[in-house]
Amino acid sequence: MRVKLVSLEDGITSCGFRKMAAFVAQINQDTESCYVSTNRYRSIRNGLRGTLGSAGSLEPEDIDLAARDLIKSDLVGFSSMTGYAELTRKLITRVKELDPSTYVIWGGIHPIIHPEDAILSNVDAICVGEGEFAFQQLYDELEAGKRPTDIKNFWFKDANGGEEVIRNHFLPLMSQDEMESLPFPQYGEGELIYQAGEGFIPMKRSDYIDNDGLSYTTLWSIGCPFHCSYCGNTKFISNDPKYKRIRHPSARYIVDEVKTARARFPHLSQVSFHDDSFMAIPYRQIEEFAELWKAELDLPFAVYGVIPNYVNRDKFELLTWAGMNRIRMGIQSGSRNTLEFYKRPSPPEKILAAGTVNASFSPKYHIPPAYDIITDNPIESREDLKETLQLLYDMERPYTMFIYSLKVIPNTELEKAMKERGVDIEEISASFMSIPPRAYNLLLYLLCIWRPPQWLWKRLLGHVRASTEEQKLYPRLGHVLRTAYLSRRAVSHLVKMDFSAIPGRSGYIAWRIGLIGLWRKRFTARMPRPPRPEREIAKDVRAGRIAA
Predict the structure, then answer these.
(1) Alpha-carbon distance 5 to 227, whole Å?
(2) What is the residue range of 56's domain?
(3) Which of 184, 230, 254, 520 is 20 to 30 A from 199 in CA distance terms?
(4) From the CB of residue 153, how many other CB atoms can be counted at a distance below 10 Å?
(5) Residue 287 has what pLDDT?
(6) d(CA 349, CA 355)
(7) Cα angle: 386, vertex 391, 393; to 5 degrees
(8) Which residues contact 253 (CB under 8 A, 6 or more apart)?
(9) What's the maximum distance between 2 C-alpha atoms anywhere in the chain?
(10) Which of 377, 106, 356, 84 is nearest to 230 (CA)?
(11) Is the model's pLDDT at 497 over the cut of 60?
């Protein structure tokens, strides 16, 4: 059976898709992994203006050309997030128009979060849970000439052409041993990428460099103990409450995964962990990871998805010794009302305490921490916005921010709460990367650059208006502030010779001539190995791992 798997994203870094692609290639050698990358981040002009635009667009002729490539297979599996649902739907429709016999599956985040929408497309099945073991069952039945409809983690269209949708239950979530049994994510193993007017062509080293720079993106753990209303995890947890538990393979597995990727691409000089809650992993397991990482890789790495409640100095010191040089933490808001609306149990005092720990490692050991902020929320008042700005004004410096306009994901608790308050979801469905140049948003950029004196700060706060109020826009000032904000971010990475956030060939050239290695050896501060915390020693004594 010929199989094509298709990822639709901003770039080529989808961790879940790469894991799935490796698994399917293991059970079927006639499998090709294809990327339809609509990477908006390459536009410097749009980046400076704060108008990166809507996700996922291809010209009709490109949709047709891509579909004609895809129908050369017997089975096509699509993977996409909700922002790419419409593009995915167009591709699926064209595939089925060209060859109705092609078996089409839609997986990824969107069918899990909004299966009622995905199943309305011209698909044969959608995957609504973890895909690997469920796909193997489906594949085996298709190979045997059957028309499967009873496989868990899948919804199916009626095989007889009726209107009925067959909604199957869920498989148990993968255990640690099962996660350990999976092949490493596919990376640099014959993937294809779509090029306008050419179709799917083999990916070259330059494609990886143009999209990822010198960075390798991965996940070690899955799961999140929080239940934030705006997050797609709320749907995962409603499907199976055990999703709140942190699950991950061994430290040996993740270190060997990165070593395997570097064997193919020696230029990979930094790793980004996009776990939902890396810091919630117990200290002892983080210690094992840190020791292996330091001994066998000794590479800088970033940890995304840091939750203020789990910021722990002992873990930070250990990970910094191993190579951690950057963290990204979700704040979202400094308003108690808004945080309660988001069902996010990280009150302002915990955010401030976490910020103190974060800042203490910069700039000596870390690139300044990055904090996620959600803006343009129509339920927020002026006071809510001022509370957020004041919290950020009081935060220990240095830091930067990732600023996003609110995007309501379908089928989340946030969507329900918004509708209950009478908010028109369509009115706030613009790209989350398009930031209007309102006074509040511009003050967020300003705080990344400079903390004004108190007297000036109070005057600036007087210009803040809620996003639903009539107010003046400042596009030229916004352009200046975003330029300064992005320039400062770039400089903070360059002084550490870190090209994880600077895609393109400049980093590759710096690596090729040996500048990165030399810089890190001569000019990068290294934290000494911290002593083990007394509480961890006490645990080991009680468990009999060490003598009292």
Answers:
(1) 31
(2) 3-180
(3) 184
(4) 23
(5) 97
(6) 10
(7) 90
(8) 179, 180
(9) 75
(10) 377
(11) yes
Encoded tokens for 503: 């895609």
Mind listing the pLDDT tens digit for each residue in 436-495?
Answer: 999 999 999 999 999 999 999 999 999 999 999 999 999 999 999 999 999 999 999 999
Q: Note whether 57 and 130 are same-domain residues.
A: yes
- Rounded Cα distance, 226 and 351, in Å: 15
pTM here is 0.94
CA 107/CA 113 separation, integer angstroms: 10
Q: What is the mean pLDDT of the chain?
A: 92
Angle of the 348-359 helix axis to the 313-322 helix axis, nearest 10: 30
Mark whether 312 and 248 lie in a shared domain.
yes
268 CB burial (10 A radius; 0-12, 13-18, 19+): buried
Domain boundary among 180, 203, 235: 180
Same structural domain for residues 102 and 238?
A: no
Condensed to tens digits (0 to 9), the pLDDT of residues 120-157 reads 999 999 999 999 999 999 999 999 999 899 999 999 99
Do 176 and 217 lie in a common domain?
Answer: no
Using DSSP's 3-state secondary structure scheme, residue 238 falls into helix
Say whether both 134 and 219 belong to one domain. Answer: no
Residue 260 half-sphere exposure toward CB, CA atoms < 13 A = 14
| Residue 543 backbone class (left: φ over 0; alpha: ψ -120 to 50; beta: rest) | alpha
Domain total of the chain: 2
Same domain, 26 and 136: yes
Residue that wins the pLDDT comparison between 44 and 92: 92
- Is residue 166, in this structure, part of any structural domain at all? yes
Q: Smallest Cα–Cα separation from 188: which of 18, 54, 328?
A: 18
- Are the C-beta atoms of residues 428 and 406 closer than 8 Å to each other? yes
β-bridge mates for residue 405, sequence order: 375
Tokens of 376: 């343009």
First to last CA, the chain: 60
pLDDT tens, residue by residue, 395-423: 999 999 999 999 898 888 999 999 999 99
The token duo for 305 is: 């998805």
Q: Tens digits of per-residue pLDDT, 66-78?
A: 999 999 999 999 9
pLDDT at 41: 44
519 in a structural domain: yes
